[in-house]
Structures are given as structure tokens and as C-alpha cells.
Amino acid sequence: MSYDIALKRIYSPPEPDDGARVLVDRLWPRGKRREGLALTDWYRDASPSPALRRQYHQGEISPGVFAARYRGELRDDPESLVPLMRHARQGRLTLLSATRNLDESHLPILRDALLRALREEDAEDAEPTSPPCYRHQLKDE
Length: 141
Known about the structure:
It is built from five helices and four strands.
């Protein structure tokens, strides 16, 4: 199955085709009122931990180290992706952040993790849940 997960700045105006709009930042964006954002949810649990975010923004770690550690946080807490996966299964999901440069933010990493988790779950659903029934063989005995 194909999933549509878009990335957008919270400061961009809402559009009708955004689908579920979920802010995935630990901090509320400066100067924004909740009423004007057309948010479906503000979900902090899938964003980078405060310590990791602080290290990255203060320049203590490189973008590569940030990405690796954030992937590790997501891998260590797979349940944090479940609410976002539910939104993605219902239609378009727009992940929102206040960051200036979306390509260098946590959102592309989060989208990749979501798509991977959705594919894995879809693959598990495609496998048979129980062995074939051999009941007809028991009747012959």
C-alpha cells in the first residue's frame, strides 16, 4: 500500500489537501495561536528528545550524528509511531515543524521511520496468522 506523508512548516498556511495536520515538535512555535493552525494533533512523543534536540541546535553534534541518534530513539520506542501510523492509514498525513529548513530537520527521518513501520506492519498482515487447517485429514482416520 502507498502512503502519502507530506512535510510542511507550521508557518505555511493550511491547505484543504493537507489531510491530518500533526505538529511534531517538543516546543510550541513562537507567535502562533492554536486556533489558526488547523491542527489535528500536537504530538511530542515522536520528536527528538530534549537532550538530543539541544545538542543538535547548540552545534555539539553533527547532522549525521543527530540523524543516527534520532533513528535510535525511534527504534527504541516503536510505540511512539503508532498514533502517526493511524493517521497515515486514513489518508494524507502532513507532518509539521517550526524549523526553517525541513530537509535538515527531524521530519524526513521521522517520515522514513513511519513508512518503514507501515511497510513492516503491512507485510506482517499479509502473512497467514495460523497454519492451514488439516481437519479434513482427521475425518479420514
